[in-house]
Amino acid sequence: QVQVVESGGGLVQPGGSQRLSCVVSRFAFARYIMSWYRQAPGKERELVAGFTSADGSANYADSVKGRFTISRDNVKNTVYLQMNSLKPEDTAVYYCNARASWAAYGYWGQGTQVTVSS
User: Fold this and answer.
1) Does the pLDDT of residue 2 top 90, yes or no?
2) 88 in helix, strand or coil?
3) The pLDDT value given to residue 55
4) With contact defined as beta carbons under 8 Å apart, do 75 and 66 qualify?
5) What does the H/E/C string look like for 2-57?
6) pLDDT grade for 46, boundaries at 50, 70 and 90
7) Which residues, in sequence order, are bridge partners of residue 98?
8) Which of 12, 60, 79, 97 has a CA between 20 and 30 Å from the CA of residue 51?
9) Is the separation of the CB atoms in 81 and 34 below 8 Å?
10) What are the pLDDT digits (tens) for 54-72?
11) 97, 108 in Cβ contact below 8 A?
């Protein structure tokens, strides 16, 4: 079983920055395709940033392109989401997803709340 734990959320001022972390308790972390989603109240969960493969390039939602950066550290079994120039519209619960390249479904973390407000 894969355990996914997000952290790093909190209250951030507009224009500020925040880095989210997602730790995956799986030895074969390097073979997992990692991505970040978010869900605002009353909205559907949407893909924010994700790798195209376990070792591929990253894709970003148009709304965050140029502001967010996804990265991974295979030694620490951690994926990060660096969020810069935050806007109130970025307020949401952010979820990490880990999916093995051979699997149809991934594993979800419990989410971490990011609130952008002055």
Assistant:
1) no
2) helix
3) 78
4) no
5) CCEEEECCEEECCCCCEEEEEEECCCCHHHEEEEEEEECCCCCCEEEEEECCCCCC
6) very high
7) 34, 107
8) 12
9) no
10) 878 999 999 999 999 999 9
11) yes
**Pair of tokens at residue 6:** 């997000």
Rounded to the nearest 5 degrees, what angle is found at the Cα of 56, between the Cα atoms of 50 and 62? 35
Q: Do the beta carbons of residue 79 and residue 22 sit within 8 Å?
A: yes
Residues 18, 14: Cα–Cα separation, whole Å: 11
Token pair, residue 14, equals 């507009």
44: which 2 tokens? 């559907």
Residues 6+ apart with CB under 8 A from 67: 83, 84, 85, 86
Rounded Cα distance, 16 and 102, in Å: 38
Strand 112-116 relative to strand 92-100: parallel, antiparallel, unpaired? Answer: antiparallel
In whole angstroms, give the CA distance from residue 26 to residue 55. Answer: 16
